[in-house]
Amino acid sequence: MSMEDYDFLFKIVLIGNAGVGKTCLVRRFTQGLFPPGQGATIGVDFMIKTVEIKGEKVKLQIWDTAGQERFRSITQSYYRSANALILTYDISCEESFRCLPEWLREIEQYANSKVITVLVGNKIDLAEKREVSQQRAEEFAETQNMYYLETSAKESDNVEKLFLDLARRLISEARQNTLANSAASPLPGEGKSIGYLNCCNFN
Amino acid sequence: MEATVSSCKVVEGGGGSSRSRSQFSMQFISNLTDLQELEEVYGRLCAEQNDAESQLEMLVNQQSSIENKMTVLQRMGPNLQLIEGDAEQLSGMISFTCNLAENVSSKVRQLDLAKNRLYQAIQRADDILDLKFCMDGVQTALKNEDYEQAAAHIHRYLSLDKSVIELSRQGKEGSIIDANLNLLQDAEQRLKVIVAEKFSVATKEGDLPQVERFFKIFPLLGLHEEGLSKFSEYLCQQVANKAEENLLLALGTDLSDRRAAVIFADTLTLLFEGIARIVETHQPIVETFYGPGRLFTLIQHLQVECDRQVDKVVDKFIQQRGYHRKFQQVQNSMMRMSATDKIEPRELDPILAEVALMNARSELYLRFIKRRISSDFEVGDSMASEEVRQEHQKSLDNLLNHCLLSRTMQEVIGYYITMEEYFMRETVNKAVTMDTCEKGQLTSSMVDDVFYIVKKCIGRALSGSSIDCLCAMINHSTTVLESDFREVLCNKLRMGFPATTFQDFQRGVTSAVNIMHSSLQQGKFDTKGIESMDEAKLSFLVSLNNVEVCSENIMTLKKTLENDCTKLFSQGFGGEQAHAKIDSCLTDLASVSNKFRDLLQEGLGELNTTAVKPQVKPWINIFLSVSHNIEEEEFNDYEANDPWVQQFIINLEQLMAEFKTGLSPVIYDNLTSLMTSLIAIELEKVVLKSTFSRLGGLQFDKELRSLVAYLTTVTTWTIRDKFARLSQMATILNLERVTEILDYWGPNSGPLTWRLTPAEVRQVLALRMDFRSEDIKRLRL
To answer: Which among A29, A108, B70, B164 is placed 20 to 30 Å from A143, CA to CA?
Structure first.
């Protein structure tokens, strides 16, 4: 048995254009901070937060990636082992919304097929500068089969909800997979492609 | 009567308090008429008299002592007068002393004040004298072109209290001093201009001693920033000249030159080393003449030139090496996946090595300036507030992370990762297609080749000193091993181990031996086109070995990388999160090892069911055709001509020989363990289908012993346990009579633990033809 004191470990990777507030979302959730004047992220950043959901300890390994183009090849290498992706855009920036299809193509290309993707419209505190309507984003998310949520890292709106809901969904997916795997043991060569690890098979 | 007495007492009490007087007044007594009353009063009066007498006596006794005391008091009288006189005198003296002290201290205070004022006056006088001295000195120094002296005077003047200057203006000589002050200010301006001019002349002429001379004068005139910026300009010019020279030399390098392949990395190195040398040489001057905390400004200026030069070098690198073009080709090759016009991974090898070197040099340089600036700030900020420190740290981080050098290298590394990934994947694919298995080797060439490639690619990323780049390459390696390469091995195993029936077994072995022989002559044999069954078999076994080695190699790779990274961190590379990031990526890599291990177990299971079981089962079934319901004669005949077990052992030996040579010891051991379990299960089945006589039971016992003895020699696992049930069955089949079982059962079992249930014991007993079923039924187990 592992010495680690958690029941589930999930990798969550935040992606999206530069300046949409990925780092602030992560900081808000993991440290309860909103650091103003945050510089652009270099490469990838790495934070851990353990939360408790229905009495189970869930360790969330959150990878905050740089949005700038020159770091793309670094961030892409993290997609495949991610259990969930948080695709973020800025509701006050049309451009960041228009880039979403490009990001979805990346996900298609690099992430594993079972990854859960959440679309997040950040910066709802800038309501007066809104350029992307909620309805438009919701419709887009629906066509792409994504869960959609609007957040404000600054006002701490929906940030907890975003990560906790995600953790709940990851737990239920992990449970289903364990069931499916125990029902029919994989044929030779059909290893489990899902990258989740719980305390029992983690070493 | 009582009431009267008491009321009288009250009256008496109210009148006086003297105890000597009787409680009865004369009047009261005179009024008394009753004898009894009189007697009573008389009695009381008598008692009173007695009291009074005793009191008097006591008082008389005290007389002498009181008289003594009185005498003493009388004697003390004159002394008391003396004391009073003394006390008055003392009081007078004290108040006098007090007054005196107050007088003295106020004078001292006055003196102090006077002294302070005197000092101030002297200071002012000194300052005024200094001022005059400065006024005169500056003129002379300027005339003599002794700029240091002039600057020292100006510095003195600038550090004077402004009020002194005001005061000296208000003096009698006010107008003269005013004029002199104007002269001094003029001189200051003139000196500033002269120093700036002389400095620019010196820089133009490249006269380093003169440049340094005037550089030292700027801070004396309060021109710290200007001095640093002008000096930096000069240094930048030098950097630029040298860099241009180096770049030209680099571009002219002969292709056959030993360093030709890394010439741009070398050019960057020269640039960085040059700047580092400049910092090294000039840091002491800056520290001494400008004070600590100023190095940041100097390096900030130098970094601008560094960025400019890096940009030029990287531009030329991109152009000359066709970096972007190659990247584009790689991207196209990755998209299309068509074999035609794919860029040859070998072509990328040198350029990837050069980029890694370029980045390593940049990281080294950035780390150098970070260290220098940090320690300079530390000295300068030793008294500063936390805010100032954080502000400085922030500006330093900003300089390091967002300078053009960093951004340029980030961009170059961005392309590098994609190209390195392509290089790795393509080379791994090539290793797979060129896979061969040397004779006598358990594994095929691709395993060693693939791990060599993965190690090379991660090692190159590691040599580039970029943590993010290293993590990305570890991630890509994980993908290549887990998806691509594992898939290859999976597919090989999925083809399965060809099932062989008993009939073609003999032929199979001989042809396998033939193949081994022929491969021995050829030196190797090809595993690509699997045409014959024997090749398929070998391919399967080699694949199993490959899977095991992969699992081990991944763990070794992880450990090696952990050590390498620890070294890197101990040299100060990587931020605070670097360790956590690397650990996480390495954990993912290590988990691939388990996936290979799972694959090995699946493959072994497959081998056991398709290759071992179909052969072993018929051999065991032969047992059924050998009667164990035998008499003495047959038993003796069996003794001479073994009916089953010897042939079975020989068959097993031949079957396993193929695997023993073809599989690694660990896997072979695993397989024999699977096989012994299989034999135990199958043998049990046939025993339960047979019938036995007493001698037949003995025969079975002999057979089982031979078999167990043989199997013990071929495995390192303990097999006694697996055969426990069978040995117990043999014991039962060997009994003289049914009830003899009770000697071994229940309380008599001793060290023996029964693996058979009572029902199974009865079932086995029933296999003996000579045991009556009533006896068996009657047993109490």
So the answer is: A29
